[in-house]
Amino acid sequence: MPLSTTSPPAGTEAAEIRRRLVADAEDRIHRLLDLETEKWTAAGGRPAELVASVRRVVDAGGKRLRPAFCVTGYLSAGGDPGSGDDVVRAAAALELLHVFALIHDDVLDDSAVRRGVETVHSTYAGDHLRRGMLGEPRRYGEGVAILAGDLAHVYADGLAAQLPPAARQIWTELRTEMIVGQFLDVLAAAEALMDVQTARWIAVCKSGHYTIHRPLTLGAAVAGRTDLNGVFQRYGALVGEAFQLRDDLIDVTGDSGITGKPTGLDAARHKMTLLLALAAEKDDRVRKLVGAPAREHDAAERLHTLLRECGVVDDVERLIQELVDDACAVIREAPLDREWREELIEMAHRVAYRDH
């Protein structure tokens, strides 16, 4: 990929170029889904329903963080915004991979709502009931959702296969870390593991690497630079942990009208979040409630209340600030032009201090 021969644009102009390339990635996704819909409609129509399920998740919105970090990695590494086909392809692949992860995550968590709309497995379970189909509605809905997620993964891999070799290697590492992190998340919930280090490692895999570090290095690799991997890894681990802690806080204190899903879901499912592990370390009542048997139907509600009362929320806010400060210190010393150092500092604050 040719590097830009001009200086990086300053301030809002840099952000505008990033927004344009992220929008181009969304257009790429919609063109791909349009072609797939046309192909499968011509083949009989019913297969196109699966493509429509992927499209509904894409169209439900989202923060587009991974494409934004990917494009930022590309531009900050000197990538030419006028020759951005590969980075648009990489950003589109990241968003489709995220769609795959969301659809499967909703099955794993048995979530009925995502981004304010019904989840794929809930939609198809309801369809099964309304139509009086054979078999179990829940199994049918989950089966369709797993296949819809797999289809999004195939589309993502198809886009990533066209990237340069160094970028493809990062793509493989990103997918592996994401899936291993998800497995550990499921395992920790089942075993009621309340270990801060394990929870932190899961946060780094699921947020640090998957959301920030790997998208940044993927974009930089498309621009032909791998020397920024160390800087982006340190920054990504710090901002990723802050991102996950904010996610945990939103589940405890957030507004469901803004988040698009009910609060208290992590407590209800006894997910071993980093916030929950820190709370269990701080207050033994939390540890006891996490191990409460399922028959204690009010345990989740009591746990949610206790998390708000035990002081861990203030502790986590302070930890988020420390993580963001450390991430900004890493970027201030990075071998990047000032404009992109400022952009990455702004992005760290944006993901750590959000309301959804």
Automatic annotation (TrEMBL):
Similarity remark: Belongs to the FPP/GGPP synthase family.
Domain of life: Bacteria
Keywords assigned: Magnesium, Metal-binding, Transferase
Cofactor(s) this protein cannot do without: Mg(2+)
Keyword hit for Coiled coil: no
GO MF term list: metal ion binding; prenyltransferase activity
The protein, known as: Polyprenyl synthetase family protein
Taxonomic lineage: Bacteria, Bacillati, Actinomycetota, Actinomycetes, Streptosporangiales
InterPro entries according to UniProt: Isoprenoid_synthase_dom_sf, Polyprenyl_synt, Polyprenyl_synt_CS
GO biological process: isoprenoid biosynthetic process
CDD domains: Trans_IPPS_HT (cd00685)
